[in-house]
């Protein structure tokens, strides 16, 4: 799939669940009570157990039939072996996203890169490798090196 890819783009849907409107029949299932009255969501809120699956299915339908495209939830990776091929694929994805009413988080989008981080991988023409995950590494400090936990 990615063996000949040289150009990569990554797009990110903006607040993915909030982009899915709920029908009136479904909205009442999201009712919550406050001191000011009863309210329900008009759009799919975070926390609904089936929300990730519903959004993933929606994104699969949006990118269905497009070559050089992988989607995982709100992240979409687009690639091509030639700049023109890559650009045509990006245009097709953006067109389908617009038709589906999906807005993008431009701060997280990257276009026409030779290296891109997607999910927990770094993807480049040289191949796919795990991205370093410095955020989860806890380095010992002098204060914590001798500390122990006790009640």
Describe this structure in words.
- The chain is α+β, with helices and mostly antiparallel strands.
- It has a domain at 7-14 and 49-137: Alpha-Beta Plaits (2-Layer Sandwich).
- Helices cover 25% and strands 25% of the residues.
- The protein has a 4-stranded antiparallel sheet.
- A hairpin with a 2-residue loop joins strand 8 and strand 9 (127-130).
- The chain is flat and about 60 Å long.
- The model has no long low-confidence stretch (mean pLDDT 86).
Features:
25% strand; 4 helices; flat; 151 residues; alpha+beta
Q: At the first level of CATH, what is the class of the domain at 7-14 and 49-137?
A: Alpha Beta
Order of helices and strands: EHEEHEEHEEEEH
Order of strands in the sheet with the most strands? 4-5-1-6
Cα-to-Cα separation, first versus last residue: 54 Å
User: Helix fraction?
Assistant: 25-40%
CATH homologous superfamily identity of the domain at 7-14 and 49-137: Reverse transcriptase/Diguanylate cyclase domain
Basic shape:
flat
CATH topology of the domain at 7-14 and 49-137: Alpha-Beta Plaits
Query: Which CATH architecture of the domain at 7-14 and 49-137 is right?
Result: 2-Layer Sandwich
Number of strands: 9
Query: Which class do the helix and strand fractions yield?
Result: alpha+beta
